């Protein structure tokens, strides 16, 4: 009896040889949606796995399992959602609009509000000298306590650490009060990310929502 002829699987990402007699369910790993090529990045639209290198991209294992087939599958087209245009507001120079702007609050340069000039708060009558207490915990990555300065411990301030932007009072400040990115931010090939936690995304909204990776003191002065 002649051996059954071997056939080549036509599923994307498989390309294995099989016979009709030896083709159990789950023997084939494949991608059920086509690739996306954009700005040097290669991505499988079905599982969102990506790579800049084409050889590594082709080695990404399939995300679905099934039987081998000689029929070329009809790939599901990747749905590309067009991003809604961001409305361009009129000139806003008042302090309240800067405080509400997420870019300004986190210390980024903002083209809508220009350079962020540091506002000098007048010294209040009940101002006291605040020196953060030294922490007895093990040495950990993060910001050291802010430099000694004259502040009102009850005055609300905006933290300028990257990724924070929270409003705080100095009396509530401590060495784990702030969640932030020590940075630096990396912008390359239309990818945006943080070097500190090695997370990179395409969209600026996604970049702004990357969760902070470090704890430390709130700091109302922009981190240089």
Secondary-structure arrangement, i.e. CATH architecture of the domain at 156-216? Irregular
**End-to-end separation:** 79 Å
Low-confidence stretches: 78-82, 115-120, 134-140
Strands, count: 16
Q: Report the biggest beta sheet as strand number plus sense, adding barrel if it closes.
A: 3 strands, antiparallel
Helix percent band: under 10%
| Strand residue percentage | 15-25%
Number of H/I helices: 4
User: In what order do the strands lie side by side in the largest sheet?
Assistant: 4-5-6
Radius of gyration: 27 Å
Could you state the order of secondary-structure elements as H and E? EEEEEEHEHHEEEEEEEEHE
CATH fold naming of the domain at 156-216: btk motif of tyrosine-protein kinase itk
Query: What's the CATH class label of the domain at 156-216?
Result: Few Secondary Structures
Mean of residue pLDDT values: 75
Structural class by sheet pairing and helices: mainly beta
Shape: elongated
Protein name: Cysteine and histidine-rich domain-containing protein RAR1
Biased composition (Polar residues): 123-139
Domain CHORD: 9-68, 159-218
Pfam families: CHORD
Can you give a write-up of this model?
With 224 residues, the chain is mainly beta. Among the domains are: 7-66, btk motif of tyrosine-protein kinase itk, CATH 4.10.1130; 156-216, btk motif of tyrosine-protein kinase itk (Irregular), CATH 4.10.1130.20. 9% of the residues lie in helices and 21% in strands. The strands form 7 sheets. Strands 4-5-6 form a 3-stranded antiparallel β-sheet. It has a 3-stranded antiparallel β-sheet with strand order 13-14-15. It has a two-stranded antiparallel sheet with strand order 1-2. The longest helix has 6 residues, at 95-100. The protein is elongated, with a radius of gyration of 27 Å. It starts with 6 loop residues before the first strand and ends in an 8-residue tail after the last strand. The model is unreliable at 78-82, 115-120 and 134-140 (pLDDT under 50).
